[in-house]
Design brief:
The protein folds into 2 domains: about 160 residues, Jelly Rolls; about 50 residues, no CATH class. It is about 30% helix and about 25% strand. The N and C termini lie far apart (about 60 Å). It binds 2-acetamido-2-deoxy-beta-D-glucopyranose. One of its GO terms (cellular component) is apoplast.
Length: about 230
């Protein structure tokens, strides 16, 4: 009888753990508990019609209006962006860790695509009025196929979708990822890695601190025994 109770208790604990881990792995914005956030008295914002200044070599600027820029979004689980493309401008490969996206072309013709977890590329050419989806967490990009400017509007299922650029996430980190990790990962020498880093690091060039670097270098040496 007592054993049964203990077994029951263990089962209950495991059930709770299972439910908790299920809810955390499916984390998204929580459902709102009221019509809108009481702390926010202004559900309006202006300036979304203004063309964003394109100040990068890739020639496209994504302006994300998330909850930080527009507090009215708070608790509502949505965000919006405008993406301005110069001639042949590229919105570089990136992902949004917390939201799927619907992307609509308002002006111009774009080549766009995303990559699934089995590395299949889903790509297409989008004309004015076309819409594409970019699933949460998958790498995607858009490239302006025209000599004139292009514009797209993107809607997100999170008030704070986040953005991780693929290149910056590897070659533009602070501090830099250890040379050996990158030369091994990409199967190229340090010269090539440094060249890539110079394109993507945000000019700070913070190297990994020297004590940590020496320790990591030492640890990454092959054990002498194995070399013999
Ligand atoms: C590094 O690799 C590049 C490209 O393969 C090559 O041109 C260059 O000579 C190499 N540099 C060194 C120092 O090995």
């Amino acid at each position: 009888m007592e054993k049964k109770i203990i077994n029951g208790a263990i089962l209950a604990i495991f059930t709770v753990i299972a439910i908790l881990s299920f809810t955390t792995t499916n984390a998204s914005d929580p459902a709102p508990l009221q019509d809108f956030c009481v702390g926010v008295d202004d559900p309006y914002s202006a300036g979304f019609d203004r063309t964003s200044v394109i100040d990068n070599p890739q020639g496209a600027e994504a302006t994300l209006v998330n909850v930080n820029r527009f507090p009215g979004l708070n608790t509502l689980g949505v965000a919006i962006a405008r993406i301005d493309f110069g001639p042949f401008g590229l919105n570089t490969p990136h992902l949004h860790p917390r939201a799927s996206q619907a992307f609509a072309v308002m002006k111009g013709t774009l080549y766009a695509g995303f990559v699934s977890t089995d590395y299949k590329l889903y790509d297409t050419i989008l004309k004015e009025g076309d819409i594409i989806v970019f699933p949460q967490g998958l790498i995607h990009f858009q490239f302006n196929l025209g000599k004139s400017k292009a514009l797209a509007i993107a809607a997100f299922g999170s008030q704070n979708p986040g953005r991780v650029n693929v290149a910056d996430g590897v070659f533009g980190t602070t501090p830099e990822i250890l040379d050996k990790v990158l030369t091994k990962a990409f199967q190229v020498n340090k010269t090539v890695i440094d060249q890539l880093r110079s394109q993507f690091s945000n000019s700070k060039h913070v190297s990994i601190d020297s004590a940590r670097s020496i320790l990591l270098e030492t640890l990454s040496q092959k054990p002498k025994v194995l070399d013999a």
